[in-house]
C-alpha cells in the first residue's frame, strides 16, 4: 500500500450559470438556467436560486418553467466556459503538476508532496478557493481527503462555496454513516439492489463480506467493499505533456475590424506570456500560430515555424495575423494565438538508434 496521500477535489458551483452571472450582473439575483429554451430544450445547469424551486440539470425546459415561472433561460456559450475552465485549471496547476481534470469544471489534485502552505492540504484548498474567487470571479467547492472517492464526496458535502475535510482519523466514522447512494458508480439500480439486501449505509455494507458483494455485483462488488471501508487506491492521473499552449477569446460583441483585433492581441500576448511561464517551462518553441473565427463561424488558422523566440511578442504575431486576414475587414467573433513546442523526443531516439 502506498503511504498516506492528500487529495483535493475541486468542483465549480453551478458552473455554466456562474459564468453567466459573473458576466451579466442582471442575471445575479434571478433564478437562472442555462440550456435550450425551445419546445424540446433541456436544462444544462441552473443557479442555486432556481434549484430552490426544484429545477435540475437534464430537466426539460418546459418542466423547469412550470416549477419556476420566473425562470430566466440563457443559451450555453461553450467557448466562454472552456476559456473560464482553462483559467481555473491554470490556477490549480500553479500549485502542483499533479492535476487530473474530469470535466470542464472539476479536477483532482494530488498534493501529497506540496510543501507550500505548511504542507497542509486544508490550507491549500482554502487558498485555491480564494484565488479562483478573486481572479476568475466564480466560486468553487473543495473536498480534502486521503483518496479520490472521499475527496469527491467531500467537495459535494458543503456545496455551494464550501470546503469539507475528511482527515485520515475521521475516515472510519465518516464512511460508516455514509449512504450507499453517495458511492462512485452507485446509481438507482445498484442502490435499489443494495436496499433489497438491507444495506443502506457503508456501515451496513461492511458487515456483508466481500464474497457476497462480488457474487452479487461482479467486479463492482469488490470496489463497493473497498469503498465501504474508505479505501480507494486509484492514482491521480495527469494527462499528456503540453504540446502547445494557446489563449483565445470569444467576444460578446464581434470586433468590427483589423485594428480592433490588433488592440486585443496586446492582451492576448500578455496572457500567453503568463501561461507560458506556468505551463511551458523552458521548452523550446517550434511554431507560432494565430486563429480567427469570423461572425459567420468560419474559422481559419495560420502557423509558421519560428524557433528562435523565447517569449513571443506582439511583433512576432502581427505578420501572421495580417497574412491570415488579408486586406478586408470582416466582423470577428473569436481571436486566439499560441505556440507549439518542438518535439525533442524524436531526434533523441533516432540518435540512439545510430549510436
Ligand atoms: N452539465 C450539462 N448537463 C448535465 C450536467 C452538467 O451540460 N446533465 C454541464 C453544466 C454544468 C457543468 O456541466 O455547469 C458541470 O456539471 P456539475 O455536475 O458540476 O454541475 P454544476 O457545476 O452546474 O453545479 P454544482 O457542481 O454546483 O452542483
Ligand atoms: Mg460543478
UniProtKB/TrEMBL annotation:
GO terms for molecular function: damaged DNA binding; DNA-directed DNA polymerase activity; magnesium ion binding. GO terms for cellular component: cytosol. Its cofactor is Mg(2+). Its main location: cytoplasm. It is found in: Cytoplasm. InterPro entries: DNA/RNA_pol_sf, DNA_pol_Y-fam_lit_finger_sf, DNA_pol_Y-fam_little_finger, DNA_polymerase-Y, DNApol_IV, IMS_HHH_1, Rev_trsase/Diguanyl_cyclase, UmuC. The active site is at 106. Binds 2 magnesium ions per subunit. PROSITE patterns: UMUC. GO terms for biological process: DNA repair; DNA-templated DNA replication; error-prone translesion synthesis; SOS response. Residues 7-187 form the UmuC domain. Pfam families: IMS (PF00817), IMS_C (PF11799), IMS_HHH_1 (PF21999). Keywords: Cytoplasm, DNA damage, DNA repair, DNA replication, DNA-binding, DNA-directed DNA polymerase, Magnesium, Metal-binding, Mutator protein, Nucleotidyltransferase, Transferase. Mg(2+) binds at residues 11, 105. It is an enzyme of class 2 (transferase). It catalyses: DNA(n) + a 2'-deoxyribonucleoside 5'-triphosphate = DNA(n+1) + diphosphate. It comes from the Bacteria. The record marks 16 as: Substrate discrimination. Its EC number is 2.7.7.7. Monomer. Poorly processive, error-prone DNA polymerase involved in untargeted mutagenesis. Copies undamaged DNA at stalled replication forks, which arise in vivo from mismatched or misaligned primer ends. These misaligned primers can be extended by PolIV. Exhibits no 3'-5' exonuclease (proofreading) activity. May be involved in translesional synthesis, in conjunction with the beta clamp from PolIII. PANTHER family: DNA POLYMERASE KAPPA (PTHR11076:SF33), DNA REPAIR POLYMERASE UMUC / TRANSFERASE FAMILY MEMBER (PTHR11076). Belongs to the DNA polymerase type-Y family. HAMAP family: DNApol_IV. This is DNA polymerase IV. The lineage of its organism: Bacteria, Pseudomonadati, Pseudomonadota, Gammaproteobacteria, Pseudomonadales.
Amino acid at each position: 500500500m502506498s503511504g498516506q496521500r492528500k487529495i483535493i477535489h475541486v468542483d465549480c458551483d453551478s458552473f455554466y450559470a456562474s459564468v453567466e452571472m459573473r458576466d451579466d450582473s442582471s442575471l445575479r439575483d434571478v433564478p437562472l438556467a442555462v440550456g435550450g429554451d425551445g419546445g424540446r430544450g433541456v436544462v444544462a445547469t441552473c443557479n442555486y436560486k432556481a434549484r430552490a424551486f426544484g429545477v435540475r440539470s437534464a430537466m426539460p425546459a418546459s418542466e423547469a418553467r412550470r416549477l419556476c415561472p420566473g425562470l430566466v433561460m440563457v443559451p450555453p456559450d461553450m467557448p466562454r466556459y472552456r476559456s473560464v475552465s482553462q483559467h481555473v485549471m491554470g490556477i490549480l496547476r500553479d500549485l502542483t503538476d499533479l492535476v487530473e481534470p474530469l470535466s470542464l469544471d472539476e479536477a483532482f489534485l494530488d498534493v501529497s508532496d506540496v510543501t507550500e502552505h505548511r504542507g497542509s492540504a486544508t490550507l491549500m484548498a482554502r487558498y485555491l478557493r480564494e484565488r479562483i474567487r478573486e481572479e476568475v470571479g466564480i466560486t468553487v467547492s473543495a473536498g480534502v481527503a486521503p483518496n479520490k472517492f472521499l475527496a469527491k464526496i467531500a467537495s459535494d458535502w458543503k456545496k455551494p462555496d464550501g470546503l469539507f475535510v475528511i482527515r485520515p482519523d475521521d475516515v472510519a466514522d465518516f464512511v460508516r454513516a455514509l449512504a450507499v447512494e453517495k458511492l462512485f458508480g452507485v446509481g438507482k439500480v445498484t442502490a435499489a439492489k443494495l436496499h433489497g439486501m438491507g444495506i443502506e449505509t457503508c456501515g451496513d455494507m461492511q458487515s456483508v463480506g466481500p464474497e457476497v458483494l462480488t457474487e452479487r455485483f461482479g467486479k463492482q462488488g469488490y470496489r463497493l467493499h473497498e469503498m465501504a471501508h474508505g479505501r480507494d487506491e486509484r492514482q491521480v492521473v495527469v494527462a499528456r505533456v503540453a504540446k502547445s499552449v494557446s489563449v483565445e477569446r470569444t467576444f460578446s460583441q464581434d470586433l468590427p475590424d483589423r485594428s480592433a483585433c490588433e488592440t486585443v492581441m496586446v492582451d492576448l500576448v500578455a496572457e500567453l506570456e503568463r501561461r507560458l511561464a506556468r505551463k511551458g517551462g523552458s521548452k523550446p518553441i517550434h511554431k507560432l500560430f494565430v486563429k480567427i473565427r469570423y461572425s459567420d463561424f468560419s474559422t481559419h488558422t495560420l502557423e509558421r515555424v519560428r524557433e528562435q523566440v523565447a517569449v513571443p511578442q506582439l511583433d512576432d504575431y502581427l505578420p501572421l495575423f495580417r497574412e491570415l486576414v488579408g486586406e478586408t475587414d470582416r466582423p470577428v467573433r473569436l481571436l486566439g494565438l499560441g505556440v507549439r513546442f518542438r518535439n525533442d523526443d524524436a531526434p533523441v531516439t533516432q540518435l540512439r538508434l545510430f549510436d
